[in-house]
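User: We ran a pulldown and think these components assemble together. Before we commit to crystallization trials, I'd like a predicted model of the whole complex to look at. Sequences follow.
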Amino acid sequence: MKETAAPPAPSSVRVRIVGRSPYVAIALAWLIPGLGHYYLGRRRTAAAFAVIVVLTFVAGLSFQGRLYSIEQGQPLTILATFAVWGAGLLNIAARLFTENPGGSILSVTYEYGCAYLLTAGLMNLLLILDAWDIATGRKR
Amino acid sequence: MTMLALVPTDHFLIMTLYALLVSAFFAILWREDGRERWKLFGILVAALVGGGLAVAWLMYPFPK
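Assistant: Here's a predicted model for the assembly, 204 residues in total across the polymer chains.
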């Protein structure tokens, strides 16, 4: 008797979004929070993500947190720098246009500021992965 | 009045704002349905703020 392959379960079916490149989606997602989702047609979600990530980042700056850079003898700054650079253009603009990208360690809100800035970058990194999953059909 | 004067320095307020932002982010990221999103948002806010208060309470006997 001839065996036939079972049809794939509905949850395993990947449907790619036609005319939308996953690579463009993740590049846009890195540049501006939510832009990857906007490119993929999820406009309301994109707006919500943009507001949340930008608000978190701006709050971090206003709390005088630090935009980390890699320092010799401080291996954890590699991870922190990676996280902050996840915020894309926000991070670049902040480094260019703020008076003190290193933050103010004497400020009472310095530690909070650092946590907010790191969180904003990590959120955007998650959005990049999410945009990839949507663009490749792994997430509906 | 400078912008700096508008920045809160109250620890609880900053922690609560953080909890709201993080909870909103994950609720939108992990749930599709509006009702489910609000439910997860509530759970996450309660866990983050409640967890923060619980840890603060546990650390109270050890101020330094």
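The mean pLDDT of chain B is 89. That may be worth checking against your pulldown data before setting up trials.

User: Thanks, that helps.
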